[in-house]
Amino acid sequence: MAASVTIPRLFAMKEKQEKIVAVTAYDYAFAHLADAAGIDVLLVGDSLGMVVQGRANTLPVTMDEMIYHTAMVARAARRALVIGDMPFMAYQVSTAEAIRNAGRFIKEAGAAAVKLEGGAAVSPLIQAITDAGIPVQAHIGLTPQSVHQMGGYRVQRDEARLLEDALRVEQAGAFSVVLEGIPSAIATKISRKVRIPTIGIGAGPDCDGQILVLHDLLGLSERHVPKFVKQYRTLAAEVRQGLTEYGDEVRGGGFPAPEHCY
Ligand code: KIV
Hints:
The protein has 11 helices and 8 strands. The protein has an 8-stranded parallel beta barrel, surrounded by 7 helices. It is globular. The relative contact order is 0.12.
């Protein structure tokens, strides 16, 4: 088995221009498959609110739910770096609460790092959590927890602000930054400017790595997927077909057959 992915290893990958491959994961079964497939980073994203819980957005997801899912993913990961995503209102109220909640991902769930959304405005928090010994991945550009402030899920095009956000989170000690929903040319400039690895989602090919939501890339749900998603499989149709055949056979007496009986 290849060596475990560590934060220094992510920096070395950026240095050597080796792309970092990241995906979201929410449970043991898929985290095990992703880890075995050689995915470098498993992010337990609060996107689970939408793809696992069926909610309209990520805002209602709680800390306890994130800990529950992160623990399952961490149990499966042999090689990949596991990052827990801090949900809405887990880090905004006070610095002490942000540090306590970040610490829960490490102590209770077995994650190696946490992610939180925001740029310059959250840089003091990033500094405080990092100073407490917890590695932080930042997330700038289209930040889904700000859906109401942004007036929807909109591509972010303010180059000066995005560059400033990236530099400020780096200065605050973030070990990496997710660039979401940013024109490729801006993401390229940011990736060249910062020393920390950039992980893109809807941010073009020049980021140091890429991440997609697992259910989107595998076609596991039948929801609309954004333009930046490539669906490598259409598993929802496979699953539907398998379950329909099972139902037909149970109803028609074809299952269980003699070979399934004691
Ligand atoms: O919640 C999530 O899954 C994320 C990634 C898409 C970056 O934040």
